[in-house]
Amino acid sequence: MTTANERVSPLDQRSFRDVLGHYPTGVCALTAIDDAGSPIVMVVGSFTSVSLDPPLVGFLPAKSSTSWPRIEQAREFCVNILGADQEDVCRQLSSRDPDVYARIPGGASLHGLPTIAGAIAWMDCRVHAVHDAGDHVMVLADVLDLGVARTDVEPLVFFRGAYRALA
């Protein structure tokens, strides 16, 4: 265990993860439609706003992700910001079950992208750029449309290795 004054080597991956686990992240589900018309779902905890002018957002999927290449090929996707009451939905969406989206209530955005019922906000996006970032890629996306669906619940967050709700 490291103390507050010790420096962590960037080569120590476990310590790196442990330290960054002390920084909470929001939880979003990205949804898209592939060329065959099948829904694609990917849960991300690295989503962030990037620019107001032009409106850009970003996230960092692992290069090992099987969902990201399919979303990248689709080019457009919907970001569904999950609420604190959607931990079970998040866990279902994180499964490797290819038909998981069929069991999650949802609809379609104005751009025809899949949405998740109960999400607190959504954004329709288009891939703007993809950059190499170690064992991940950094994705920048143009925001095409967005909205708030619920104001009665706090966002789902991930902190110290567990899903949490804001106090």
UniProtKB/TrEMBL annotation:
Domain Flavin reductase like: 20-165
Gene Ontology MF terms in the entry: FMN binding; riboflavin reductase (NADPH) activity
Entry-linked SMART domains: Flavin_Reduct (SM00903)
InterPro entries: Flavin_Rdtase-like_dom (IPR002563), NADH-dep_flavin_reductase (IPR050268), Split_barrel_FMN-bd (IPR012349)
Record's keyword terms, sorted: Oxidoreductase
UniProt keyword annotation of Oxidoreductase present: yes
The UniProt record lists the keyword Oxidoreductase: yes
Family: Belongs to the non-flavoprotein flavin reductase family.
Protein name (Swiss-Prot/TrEMBL): Flavin reductase family protein
Source taxonomy: Bacteria, Pseudomonadati, Pseudomonadota, Alphaproteobacteria, Sphingomonadales
